[in-house]
Design goal:
about 90 residues, 4-stranded antiparallel sheet, 3-stranded antiparallel sheet, 7 strands
């Protein structure tokens, strides 16, 4: 299999090269910071953005939404959204 973009430089605005399931957790940060999040089942979402010292809540995120947010954590407390996929 060949990847014609293998030599391309990755950037924040480049398409994701990795996708991973996210389990919301109040104590631990994600293994990879995200470029964006996909919300499989809508609800509220509490995240810690990469350069923030505080969590932020996105209310009423719709099912199927993609949020262009670089985050380092997705919190369990306050998050009712599910089936979250991180793009990195």
């Amino acid at each position: 299999m060949s990847d014609p973009f293998a030599a391309s430089t990755d950037s924040v605005i480049a398409p994701a090269r990795h996708a991973f399931a996210i389990i919301a957790d109040d104590a631990n940060d994600l293994a990879l910071f995200t470029k964006a999040l996909y919300i499989g089942t809508g609800g509220d979402l509490v995240v810690r953005p990469v350069d923030s010292d505080a969590d932020v809540t996105f209310r009423n995120v719709q099912t199927g939404a993609i949020l262009d947010v670089r985050c380092r954590a997705v919190r369990a407390s306050g998050t009712s959204a599910a089936d979250i996929v991180g793009f990195a």
